[in-house]
Design a protein that fits this description.
The chain is of the alpha/beta class and about 140 residues long. The protein has 3 helices and 7 strands, in the order αββββαβαββ. Keywords: Cell membrane, Membrane, Protein transport, Transmembrane, Transmembrane helix, Transport.
Length: about 140
């Protein structure tokens, strides 16, 4: 007895709907992705031949960074107002009223002198006594 074999049907996968699903997933990930914006200032410190390294203490310290444009940040938090009152408010909040903490001023080498004086004035008015200016060591001259 001879049996007839049925011809196999070709099975095709419809990729059109798969492409639609992948495209929708791509759109979903693009829309839901959040981008973080860094709020640190880029500061190129001035050079100094003399100076002493900072003490490595575990005590909490404050840092005022001043960009070349005169923009202030206290402990890597940009200030909304770049004036004496705004800087004093930010220092008061960051220190919690403790003026015995060391205060470091990191100003860009091209910062106007007035911005550095404003930072020093704010520290002086609040009663900070441990003030330090941050520099990098100058290259040795042959």
């Amino acid at each position: 007895m001879k049996f007839r074999r049925k011809q196999r049907e070709n099975v095709d996968i419809n990729l059109a709907s798969l492409i639609d699903v992948v495209f929708i997933l791509l759109l979903f990930f693009v829309v839901t992705t959040t981008f973080t914006r860094e709020t640190q200032l880029r500061v190129d410190l001035p050079e100094a031949v003399s100076g002493s390294p900072a003490e490595d203490s575990q005590a909490k310290q404050l840092d005022i960074a001043i960009s070349a444009d005169g923009i202030f940040s206290v402990n890597n938090q940009l200030l909304e107002k770049n004036d004496l009152a705004g800087l004093m408010d930010a220092l008061q909040k960051a220190s919690g009223g403790d003026t015995s903490q060391p205060l470091s001023i990191s100003a860009d080498g091209k910062t106007q002198h007035q911005a550095v004086i404003t930072a020093m004035d704010a520290a002086g008015k609040l009663g900070f006594s441990h003030l330090r200016m941050t520099t990098v060591e100058a290259a040795k001259q042959p």
